[in-house]
Design a protein that fits this description.
The complex is a heterodimer of chains A (419) and B (78).
Chain A lengths: L3 E9 L6 H9 L6 E2 L12 E2 L19 H6 L2 H16 L7 H5 L1 E7 L4 H14 L16 H10 L5 E2 L7 H14 L5 E8 L4 H9 L30 E9 H6 L6 E10 L12 H14 L8 E3 L6 H15 L7 E3 L2 H4 L6 H15 L1 E2 L23 E2 L4 E8 L3 E8 L2
Parallel strand pairs in A: 4-5, 4-6, 9-10, 9-13
Antiparallel strand pairs in A: 1-7, 1-8, 2-3, 6-7, 8-14, 11-12, 13-14
Helix pairs in contact in A: 3-6, 7-13, 10-11
Chain B lengths: L2 H14 L20 H15 L5 H4 L5 H11 L2
Helix pairs in contact in B: 1-2, 1-4
């Protein structure tokens, strides 16, 4: 099988709309959480989220930088975030001017968990109030999940595989894993892979709150709400944004002298076959996903220095993931660091696995692991685990594991290592 | 420029993201202003909303320049 490496990164997050800004803020223990500004959430059980900041904010996002004015008007926010993150990644990789021949072998695998919920909600009101002749002709293709891959392929002329994963909160990790396999299997040489989400809207917040998934006890102190592994955690904080990486066949990347961030060495995936929202009580799906990724990588648990946990800050999920990690890692728990960056940027749902994989890659690059914020009183079963509380930690990082688990009982794990 | 022309021009600039000075009366939506067929459907909807006129599909199909739009609106608005 061909080897696959990462040669470009792109991020749009609540803590910064480019890789270096977002990473610097993560390492500085900043929080992207705040009171919801997109709509009046006064009457909602959850009134907080990690929103991508407006262009005039110190680390805000300017959609006009990489997304055409007309496209901005026609599509939902998740597509705008995805196009921008993909643009950053392909620029970072130095692949914006590939030949036609190269572009036949370059594709996209950028998904989303939810897709265009804000636009579906608002256009259904237009239909109800003004009738079918007032529904936008761009309604459908401005909301479809595969339209990040579609838009990006058109913008950069990428004629290889055009794919879009939809596996709830595992989307970003599955997208990267699937794309890596396409390169390994010789379907493509270059893939833009990742995930995006933009579902902070009345229906999104109400829906997740009704599913009892969101934090509702910290509406007055939003930056305290996302607290994975802490005793007082009570649900996740919704985030938004996108993460996209450029994956490239190793020999090709080496031959052109590309900057190589990491090699994707292991990918594991599994299903819980248990419940639509609750994780398996023994964490068996999570365990099997991690175990498969490790087995494929040829590494042992002791080789893994850092785990970016799924760790959403829900009472049940965090415990079960930690239990599964403990069973798999055994005595290697003594040397591994594990943190959840959702404590800082919230849960980016379909974007999470990709954004967090990028944080893993940056941990490899900079030999530092990002913190778990708000870990004031760790749960009883956290004893003896380095969850990197409060502040980032300098340490050796040679290999990393990223976990993502989603509604429906879908699990994905990625192992990456330095070249 | 007539009041209708001003308002039409404003809508075109907003929807297509083009420079205002490119939106001349002779400009073709598709050939000169970069619109596709769905953009025209959207523009026609915006004209209907703005001017309170109804532009049936067969009439909309004949609107290809800025002037076509202005002429249709002027002859049909109440």
């Amino acid at each position: 099988m061909r080897r696959v490496v990462v040669t470009g990164l792109g991020l749009v997050t609540p803590l910064g709309a480019d890789v270096e800004t977002a990473w610097a803020n993560i390492i500085a223990s900043k929080s992207g959480a705040g009171t919801i500004t997109r709509f009046d959430a006064t009457d909602y059980a959850c009134r907080i989220a990690c929103e991508v900041k407006p262009a005039d904010h110190a680390y805000g996002f300017d959609p006009g930088k990489r997304v055409d004015h007309k496209v901005q008007r026609q599509v939902d926010p998740f597509i705008i975030y995805g196009i921008d993150a993909a643009g950053q990644a392909i620029e970072d990789a130095g692949l914006t001017d590939m030949s036609e021949e190269e572009r036949y072998r370059a594709g996209c695998s950028i998904g989303s968990g939810i897709g265009g919920l804000p636009g579906i909600a608002s256009e259904s009101i237009v239909l109800h109030e003004k009738g079918p002749r007032r529904v936008s002709p761009h309604f459908v293709h401005g909301r479809l999940i595969n339209l990040i891959s579609g838009q990006v392929s058109i913008k950069y002329g990428l004629m290889g595989p055009n794919h879009a994963v939809v596996t709830a909160c595992s989307t970003g990790a599955h997208s990267i894993g699937d794309a890596a396999r396409m390169i390994a299997m010789d379907d493509a040489d270059v893939m833009l892979a990742g995930g995006a989400e933009g579902a902070i809207c009345p229906l999104g917040i109400a829906g997740f709150a009704q599913a009892r998934a969101l934090s509702t006890s910290f509406n007055d102190t939003p930056e305290k709400a996302s607290r994975p592994y802490d005793k007082d955690r009570d649900g996740f904080v919704m985030g938004e944004g996108a993460g996209v990486v450029v994956l490239e066949e190793y020999e090709r990347a080496k031959a052109r002298g590309a900057k190589i961030y990491a090699e994707v060495v292991g990918y594991g995936l599994s299903g819980d076959a248990y419940h639509v929202t609750a994780p398996h009580p023994e964490g068996s799906g999570a365990y099997r996903s991690m175990e498969m990724a490790l087995r494929k990588s040829g590494l042992s648990p002791a080789d893994i220095d850092y785990i970016n946990a799924h760790g959403t800050s829900t009472p049940l999920g965090d415990e079960l993931e930690l239990g599964a990690v403990r069973r798999l890692f055994g005595s290697a728990m003594d040397t591994v660091s594990m943190s959840s960056t959702k404590s800082a940027i919230g849960h980016l749902l379909g974007g999470a696995g990709a954004v967090e994989s990028i944080f893993c890659i940056l941990a490899l690059r900079d030999q530092i692991v990002p913190p778990t914020l708000n870990l004031d009183n760790p749960s009883d079963n956290c004893v003896g685990v380095d969850l990197v509380p409060h502040v980032a930690k300098k340490r050796q990082v040679k290999a990393v594991l990223n976990n993502s688990f989603g509604f429906g009982g879908t699990n994905a794990s990625l192992v990456m290592k330095a070249i | 420029m007539s009041e209708t022309a001003e308002r039409v021009k404003k809508i075109v600039v907003e929807h297509l993201g083009v420079e205002a000075d490119k939106v001349t009366e002779d400009a073709s939506f598709i050939d000169d202003l970069g619109a596709d067929s769905l953009d025209i459907v959207e523009l026609v909807m915006a004209f209907e909303e703005e001017f309170g006129v109804e532009i049936p599909d067969d009439a909309a199909e004949k609107i290809s320049t800025v002037k076509d739009a202005i002429t249709y609106i002027d002859s049909h608005k109440g």
